[in-house]
Amino acid sequence: MPIRLIRQAINGNKPLPPMWRSHPMKGRYDVIIIGGGAHGLACAYYLAQQHGITNVAVLEKRYIGHGGSGRNTTIIRSNYLTPEGVRFYNEGVKLYEEMSAELDFNVMFSQRGHLTLAHSDAAVRTMRLRAQVNQVEGVNSRLIWPDEIKRLCPWLDVSDKPRYPILAALYHPPGGIIRHDAVVWGYAHQADKRGVHIHQNTEVTGITVEKGVVTGVQTHHGFVEAGMVLNATAGWCSTICAMAGVKLPVTTVPLQANVTEPLKPFLDVVIVSGSLHVYVSQSDRGELVMGSSVDPFTSYSMAGTLSYIEDIASHILELLPALSQVRVLRQWAGICDMSPDFSPMMGFTGVNGFVIDVAWGTGGFKAAPVAGKMMAELIATNKTPALIEPFRLARFYEHDLVGEKGATAVGH
Q: N or C: which end of the chain has fewer CB within 10 A?
């Protein structure tokens, strides 16, 4: 149990101090991180905690966690398709398992298991391939059949009657869900304790580059010098990169989700169906959290649409018809930057001192701890860690892609 919970119980209802402080903007920072989500805050924390670099500023246009970190559906897993992706995300799962103790804050990580359903022979072959890659990389993941699927989730119809019969599933026991805002708060608190400055409501309007070297950023509060600048934004990564003269091969699209009214707990696993373009889990409050694939058009809109809610309702009822009378509580959208190979971009750019941790598509939150840790190592050592070398920006010009579409399109 985190020590913070014990202290709070002893103190009763006494007010707690702020989890992070406000600071006046300094004229210069060794590192400026653009983006106050889980990625940016994790990098700031690991810079201070592991490398002793504390003259760091995190700049967030609104409030921390406002973007993708506050709009995702909290699924954590590592059952990807490529060896590079599996190794990377598996390190992320390990960090999440230790996070409550490390940050002294309960992030409510519930490793309840993750089921990716297969409705056709082709899908079964894909799940078998993913299981084999996972096992070779030491990840707990295997192909299971209808009898075991029924034991894990009795509410699923595994007979041959449904229009999309469930033939098998990729079962990933370490997968689960987490409290996303707790992750953001925990990293912010520990980074602040180590001297990192967190500046909310601070918009970056420009990045100054002189002779190919970053010298600072322009904000609506004024200019700030920087030794190094990290772009850790989601949804606006190409806009920020353009300020430094870096062009990214990304498209920006909305990803919608919704939650239902609270129900008595009944869903003990995360369920994903690529064929039906749907995934669903049940939160600790009883709400069903569900979503689909990204919208079929580029946009920066974070509003929900009627077409989405119609599609998700029909698709979820194919799997769980007992939910027909359940009411939707709210819906929303997050902004996803999608790369051509559905893998992220991390590391150096053509501008000295300007580095990126971007293009996470639909899988950014689950990667936050390991991405932050690796980017902190890159910044501190000026060398690319082996774990993230495959995700370098230059791969698109070297024809060395990391094709992850088969494990990311819906299975968030």
A: N
